Amino acid sequence: MSDRSSAIASELFVPHQTLLLEMQAEDNLTAVLYGVGDLRLEQRPIREPEDDEVLLKIDVVGICGSDLQFIYNGYIGSLTVDKPVVLGHEVSGTVWKVGRMVKNLKRGDKNGFT
């Protein structure tokens, strides 16, 4: 792993300092890419889920190869970073809230997606 990769990884993978029994945060720590090599950790608001959406309390998030391509090259295939983009689309966690049209999941269910 290059020094640059190590620096990015050390900023992204910060151990949890506190175990919360209830989700009390109004915002969350988010990895936002602004351009090649310009990855920033920001607090972003947590919004309520739409009718057909689910809000997960994230336990684990992965940074995959496509995220690294965006970080180092600014593009992957025909997709380019031309405005700030939130990285980390491989997650697992616990369902916290569901929209009114969601029928197959409920609060407390374990779930993940890529």
Automatic annotation (TrEMBL):
UniProt-listed SUPFAM superfamilies: GroES-like (SSF50129)
Which cofactors, if any, are listed as required?
Answer: Zn(2+)
Domain Alcohol dehydrogenase-like N-terminal residue range list: 51-110
Tell whether NAD is among the UniProt keywords.
no
Q: Which PROSITE patterns match?
A: ADH_ZINC (PS00059)
Q: Which UniProt keywords apply?
A: Metal-binding, Oxidoreductase, Zinc
| InterPro entries linked | ADH-like_N (IPR013154), ADH_Zn_CS (IPR002328), GroES-like_sf (IPR011032)
Q: Gene3D superfamilies recorded for this chain?
A: Medium-chain alcohol dehydrogenases, catalytic domain (3.90.180.10)
Q: Name one GO biological process term.
A: sorbitol catabolic process
Indicate the family of this protein. Answer: Belongs to the zinc-containing alcohol dehydrogenase family.
Output this protein's name.
Sorbitol dehydrogenase
Native source species = Photinus pyralis (Common eastern firefly)
